[in-house]
Write a structure and sequence with these properties.
111 residues; alpha+beta; 2 domains; 3 helices; 3 strands; 55% helix; 13% strand; elongated
């Protein structure tokens, strides 16, 4: 699941989640948190930050970072599994299980 803090959807007040939500006015954006806290961001600053995030996500390093990290962790666990099985036969199952869990997360990131 991608984190997109600037992709907001318009909903009716009755359909708004009871916890965190945003309100937009001509002056800016207000983030209302569940505990009654609110943060205000001027509209110009919010638009600039949205543009900068969009440009940053076009850079390959930032765009592919999460998927690359998941792949490196999976590859590392997969490479260690045979050595762990030889060293401690009773732990071989847990190393292979960790590899399977990493594969599931890698597939989720790929979507």
């Amino acid at each position: 699941m991608l984190h997109r803090p600037y992709s907001l959807a318009v909903v009716r007040a009755a359909d708004a989640p009871p916890g965190d939500h945003f309100t937009l006015s001509a002056a800016g954006l207000t983030c209302v948190r569940g505990g009654g806290q609110a943060d205000f961001t001027p509209l110009g600053q919010w638009a600039r930050e949205a543009l900068l995030l969009r440009l940053l996500c076009r850079i390959a390093f930032f765009r592919d970072f999460v998927a690359g990290r998941a792949f490196r962790c999976w590859h590392k666990a997969r490479a260690r599994a045979p050595r762990a099985a030889r060293a401690r036969p009773d732990r071989a199952h847990s190393a292979l299980r960790a590899c399977a869990i990493s594969c599931v997360w890698l597939l989720r990131v790929a979507r």
